[in-house]
Amino acid sequence: MNLFDLTGKVAVVTGGNGGIGLGMAEGIASCGANIVIVGRNADKATAALEILRALGVQAAFIAADVTQKAECVKLVAETVAKFGRLDILVNNAGTSIRKMPQDYTEEEWHYVLDTNLTSAFLCSQAAYPAMKQAGSGKMINIGSMMSLFGAPYAAPYASSKGGIVQMSRALATAWAKDNIQVNSVLPGWIDTDLTKRAREQVSELHASVEKRTPAGRWGVPHDMAGIAAFLASPASDFVTGAAIPVDGGFSITT
Ligand code: NDP
After folding, report:
1. 221-235 pLDDT tens trace
2. Could you write out the DSSP letters of every residue in 112-156?
3. What's the angle, vertex CA 233, arms to CA 96 and CA 16, rounded to 5?
4. Is there a catalytic annotation at residue 111?
5. 109: Cβ–Cβ under 8 A, 6 or more apart, which residues?
6. Does some domain include residue 193?
7. If pLDDT is split at 50, 70 and 90, which confidence band does 198 have?
8. pLDDT at 201 over 90
């Protein structure tokens, strides 16, 4: 038995049109699963689809705003209509607004919480019936080093990413009986559009991450491919409710 064989399986990756989401989609596609990437920016998706199809699988883009429950329900229905099933859900869509806590508006707080945490809950809820019917499923939720640590500029972001870990544990306990595993991945600092903005906004961030990370470098989206393949595949069938750092050792140093 090939522990990592995903032939015939179907994965939805939110925010899979770039950055970490695309890195994870590539990992899952390289094991043979067909991929649906979800996002708002169709231009970014065109390039991502080419990369995924070059791995020999079918890939499609669904435009959706995952903060909206109706759009989450619709994207799952469209996936099942097009590919016949849904086996793997990667809740990766995310955003950040960096400010001191006293400066956030209520709208900004809700925007970050809705994009990072509520979206993951809504997509998981929407995907559950299809996975239950299939008799198995894998949900992979993207946390952060801010699931573990705090930072002055990250009150809503850290709240959402701490919430991702606890939500994953709650869903894992609820849906284990349906053979659905729910885990979270905590990336270290990865070079993407999101962190390009962070490096512009937070002085010394680039050098301080490099200095603290035992691996001595920032991560790249491809560094997330292996953990996605593992958590999407039968290799992780007895792993659930875990929160796994993929960070070059950032979280184990002082
Ligand atoms: P990107 O900005 O490259 O990716 C974010 C993705 O989320 C985009 O593809 C975007 O697609 C999608 N997205 C955002 N809002 C919505 C929405 N409302 N509906 C649908 N899609 C949405 O950043 P990263 O790749 O860095 O981030 C991916 C995840 O990884 C996030 O959850 C982030 O918090 C997390 N993370 C990142 C780290 C890093 O160092 N980069 C470290 C730890 C965690 P579109 O623009 O098309 O809407």
Report:
1. 999 999 999 999 999
2. HHIIIIIHHHHHHHHHHHHHHHHT-EEEEEE--GGGT---TT-HH
3. 30
4. no
5. 155, 156
6. no
7. confident
8. no
41 CB less than 6 Å from ligand 1? yes
Options 111, 128, 153, 157, the catalytic residue: 157
Check pocket membership of 27 for ligand 1, CB cut-off 6 A: no
Q: Is the CB of 44 under 6 A from ligand 1?
A: yes
Total domains present in the chain: 1
Q: How do residues 165-175 score in pLDDT, each as one tens digit?
A: 999 999 999 99
Please tell me the distance between residue 38's alpha carbon and the centre of ligand 1 in angstroms. 11
Ligand 1 neighbour 193 (Cβ under 6 A):
yes
pLDDT of 91-128, one tens digit each?
A: 999 999 999 999 999 999 999 999 999 999 999 999 99
**Domain hosting residue 241, numbered range:** 10-188+225-245
Question: What's the CA-to-centroid distance between 1 and ligand 1, angstroms?
Answer: 34
Residue 194 Cα to ligand 1 midpoint, Å, equals 7
pLDDT at site 131: 98
**pLDDT for the residue numbered 140:** 99
> Any idea what the CATH number is for the domain that residue 84 is in?
3.40.50.720
Would you say residue 72 lies in a domain? yes
Task: Answer yes or no: is 88 within a domain.
Answer: yes
232 domain-assigned = yes
Report the candidate in 98, 18, 15 with the shortest Cα–Cα distance to residue 62: 15
What gap in Å lies between CA 7 and CA 88, rounded to an integer? 12
- 240 ligand 1 Cβ < 6 A: no
